[in-house]
Amino acid sequence: MKKVKSSGSCGKLAGTGKQPRREFLKSCAALGATLGLPTLAAGRSALSAKTLSTSQSKVRVAVIGAGAFGGWTALHLQRRGARVTLLDAWGPGNSRASSGGETRVIRSTYGPDAIYVRMVARAFELWREAQEQWKKPLFHPSGVLWMAGKKDEYEKASLPLMKEAGVAFEIWAPAEAARRYPQINFEGVEWAIYEPGAGYLMAREACAAVMEAFVREGGEYRQASVEPGEIEGGEMKSVRLSDASVLAADQFVFACGPWLGKLFPDVIGKKVLATRQEVFYFGPPSGDPRFAEAALPVWIDNGEHIFYGIPANRWRGFKVADDTRGPEVDPTSQERTPTAAALRAAREYIGFRFPGMKDAPLVESRVCQYENSPDTRFILDRHPRAANVILLGGGSGHGFKHGPALGEMAAKLVLDNVAEPFFRLSRF
């Protein structure tokens, strides 16, 4: 891990060591006026982020949160030439983080929201590139089987968008699905989408791999909790760290998952709510290969109650989870003990849908959280009163797969001031 550098030199422009940043901005404004260009306002205009990113000096960016969103954002910024410090209170993919745990589903079925289908297509490219470069098996293309119920508007809306994005998929009637996967009871399933190129991702391992790549490529990682600094003149100058130090930067990205609302109660507040989610791993029968990765795809059952799961893999259990939003919790202090009611519901479900797993023993369990926005869309926008502060969050239980693509978009917002309207705060 890279040695922590003192932040005491942050009052000067990186790479020059001579001219203070404020004087530099004034000189840029004077030159712009001479040439008839827009001026650089104290609060950092739309031009300023792009100007700083293309100047001889490296723009300094602090990214707070090393989960799927923050880690990938930091890596993209580092690769584009910024000088980046990545911070996290407990470490990438830690047990409190929404990006923690073993596995996450990656699939392209996304209802009417074309932007997510395009983002997943881009994320697939970046996940594959990353694991090839890092020699780590982070993406497992086991296939994804999406089971549609009677209310199938979501699935029908997905098909033309997946086709347009070039996603390979097949449509199966229940009889065809049962022929291919006789270990599944397809009662109540109207039809199914099979996506052979989809699968699952290794969650906490991927967060660690992204951070390690970021450090190898010249980034600085610091494990510390962060408090936002004061907003003055339309920008934030610095943040306060739990080790009593102060970190200054030109741009700040807060990708704090379920803590985003607490850090910015006036701007985010209840727009990001953490809900308790329980995940269970059941042990397949001894010597029975039907419920392992080689014989079964990832599956999503979009019926009256949405359950999803990942077949047994890497000598772990058969994963089952209920996608229903649980009660609101404090992600810092909530106890991570599963409830008897949630376990009973999961056991009843697998006994019905996977008869061969009826009465299977519980071998592992995990309590995590979603951090939900009101409309389940991500949040990616500048703070309305601090133009150099980016707020990134609202994963809403489906964000992990998008990490590489969303991080790329966040880097464009920081350095090029290119924003995606679909994720702006103004929608609220």
Q: How many strand segments?
A: 22
Backbone CA Rg: 23 Å
- Biggest sheet, in brief? 8 strands, mixed
Any idea of the CATH topology of the largest domain? Answer: D-Amino Acid Oxidase, Chain A, domain 2
Count of folded domains: 2
CATH architecture of the largest domain: 2-Layer Sandwich
Strand and helix layout:
Layout: H1 21-35, H2 46-54, E1 60-64, H3 68-79, E2 83-88, E3 103-106, H4 114-134, E4 139-140, E5 144-148, H5 153-164, E6 170-172, H6 174-180, E7 191-195, E8 199-202, H7 203-216, E9 220-223, E10 226-228, E11 231-232, E12 235-236, E13 238-241, E14 246-248, E15 251-254, H8 260-263, E16 273-282, E17 298-302, E18 306-310, E19 318-322, H9 340-353, E20 362-372, E21 379-383, E22 386-393, H10 403-416
Parallel strand pairs: 1-2, 1-15, 2-9, 5-17, 15-22
Antiparallel strand pairs: 3-8, 4-8, 5-7, 6-7, 10-13, 11-12, 13-14, 16-19, 16-20, 17-18, 18-19, 21-22
Task: Based on the model shown, name its key terms.
428 residues; single chain; D-Amino Acid Oxidase, Chain A, domain 2; 2 domains; FAD/NAD(P)-binding domain
Please describe what this structure looks like.
With 428 residues, the chain is an alpha+beta fold. It folds into 2 domains: 174 residues, FAD/NAD(P)-binding domain (3-Layer(bba) Sandwich); 200 residues, D-Amino Acid Oxidase, subunit A, domain 2 (D-Amino Acid Oxidase, Chain A, domain 2). Helix content is 29%, strand content 25%. The chain contains 10 helices and 22 strands. It has an 8-stranded mixed sheet. A hairpin with a 2-residue loop joins strand 11 and strand 12. The longest helix is centred in the first third of the chain and has 21 residues. The protein is globular. The N terminus is likely disordered.
